[in-house]
């Protein structure tokens, strides 16, 4: 048992450390190539090879120093249960440090690459696919590892909706128990008119999908550990699309690359909050949906439909729904005691 735990611990740490280092190395190497080409094509031509190896050596020094001075001490403090790091359940210190040490410099070098090429009338590398996808994929892997770290990877999982421990994954463990009253059998009443204030609910909405016992019951399976991967990728879809827009030739070699990468980085800060924190919806609107909507309106105005209208409508509807259901429904004109049936 101990050897399995150590193997799982080592695997999680290796995955996170690789995700921390590899995106930095690749993006800084591509940036070094751009600087070397600028030095070589300058008049008089400079030593492009020296500039290239200087930037590569700087990236190695940066990763080494941050790993020894920040990453490893943070991990040590987290695993020896320092109270100021693990006593609060609303934030994740490892995610915060990862976003600051890896994602921030990667986006900064993407902006610098655009500026260097634009100022020197070059169109050599737009970082279209691999570097940007690698940055966000590493961020997703870090998120998945943090959520699965305290879960068993063998055996059957749980499918309830109660959160326990640090895993942020639903389980069947009860965290708050209340007295249970005796249950009296109730005979189903005949259909009749609904009583005001007590809406009727169709029985099909009370039935759990896992209660299905028909011939296709073998398809009604679910495991929260597998759902973590789905949730993590869906959590980043809007940010991925926004960063993809920056790879468009007209956008990458323009000043619009600044707000795109800056706002995309701000949206990445949402990962610092635990997945089930009540702050997540507010941060989602403040750091992603509202600023993304403004930027997408500007992009469509200046460059045409370089971004799908679907994401533009998504940002708009999420902002409107957030304001309406959290604030406007508390106003007297909307605060009624009547409840209508669902459509």
Automatic annotation (TrEMBL):
The keyword Heme does not apply. It comes from the Eukaryota. The chain crosses the membrane at residues 12-38, 50-74, 95-114, 126-145, 251-273, 293-325. InterPro entries: Uncharacterised_FAM23-like_TM. Keywords: Membrane, Transmembrane, Transmembrane helix. This is Transmembrane protein 236.
